[in-house]
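Q: Protein A?
A:
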Amino acid sequence: MSNIIDWKNLNVLVTGGTGSFGKKIVEIMLRDFHPNKIIIFSRDELKQHEMRINGFEHESLRYFLGDVRDKERLRRAMHGVDIIIHAAALKQVPACEYNPFEAVKTNIIGAQNIIDEAINMGVKKIVALSTDKAVNPVNLYGATKLCAEKMFIQGNSYAGEGGTRFSCVRYGNVIGSRGSVIPLFMGQKKNGILTITDTRMTRFWISLEQAVEVVIKALYHMQGGEIFVPKIPSMKIVDLAEAVAPACEVDIIGIRPGEKLHEILITEEDGRHTLEYNGLYVILPQFAWWRRQNYKNARKLPEEFSYTSDNNNRWLTLNELKVMARELSAPHKQTKSPRLSQTSAYRAEPAVHQQRSRAITPT
């Protein structure tokens, strides 16, 4: 069994590859890791076309039109694939509330299809993206992602000793991604009034580069069944409004259906099975098939540990939020191939990593 991840000999499939996260991880993969092949799997031909003409044209890229609801198309896309990064999902809370069956088909049935076909096709490692909204969910989107998390963790029991391993990454709101509050505030700034649901509201924040880093670390350390949670800062929604548009009026509109005052990444129940390891929190599975042989140098967390956006020990300051808002209001326009573009905040490890690529017992 090999004890390295030799990216140049691996084929990587990214579902939802035309989304904000998908484009960022493809950019970083091309620049720093150089896999043999990267398959961008999504259902939107226009976004794939736009991705191509905006610099994502490379000999290692393959664009596959398809939907995670379609098992046959997934099977074809997974041919020869070693690693899957599953980012495809319906994510908009109001849209999922109004179209619940569609959310179930994509976020839950789609997850089952990924699991089934990955096992059938002998894929080595799968990391699925989750969200803080999956923890104690109060809306349908969060409930579907909770189901997907449970399915990916238990997918290891279906894989047995076959070598396919599943883990999840769970993080908070992504700074500047489509549908996030910063673009909303920037649009409202033109009218002079920002809408805030509740002045007490707090949120976790993570950049796209940090989100990619967590996924790479998960692939590096996973033995199957873990949920990886990054250590990320919190921010107050009123501070963000002040940073984006200090001269604007603020209209308090009340908490919307399915919205929380504070977000949770690790509950007290999960905290009992969570370790602090290599800059991450790692929630370990509690099942008979789990044979922990990693995280030997990890730190056990105190009793009653939980990780919520209001009890965080790291907060974004007003000045940090102002810098972030300025950067997002004038984004760098990419005109070259991603592998040649300006280096992002995240610098990946060298192309070859010392880690077991297929085993249930990594170093």
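Q: Protein B?
A:
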Amino acid sequence: MSYPYKSSENKRNLSHFANIVRIAKSDDQVSSEEVELLSKVAKKYKITDQQFEEIMNDPEQIPTITQLDLEERIERLYELMQMVEADRVIEKAEVNTLKKIVTGLAFPYNAIDKIVMESLKTDLDITDLDRFKRDILKLL
């Protein structure tokens, strides 16, 4: 389905939400913790119930938006990592999907593996967004 985007911000938010859904679905099961996080993210980004359902059914219909400044890309990565950690089990499929999304977010290609590995080592329960940004910026 093609979405009538209200604004470029709406388009970016739908793209980001679809990426988070890709992570949640990458291991072929969406846990209750993941659904809870998806609901919070949907509210934050003003995703309608209809959009939520459509994207849950087929996140691939929404392309990854790369026209974000570096700070926005790192913020999106932080939220993607929250989904990876939501059920406290990091699956290989989630990591592979995360790498694809990080590549799609236009991080420097030669830093993708370092960014993903550093992100996976980060305990988001004790690392806030500002600290996460500083850590990722050191890799670039």
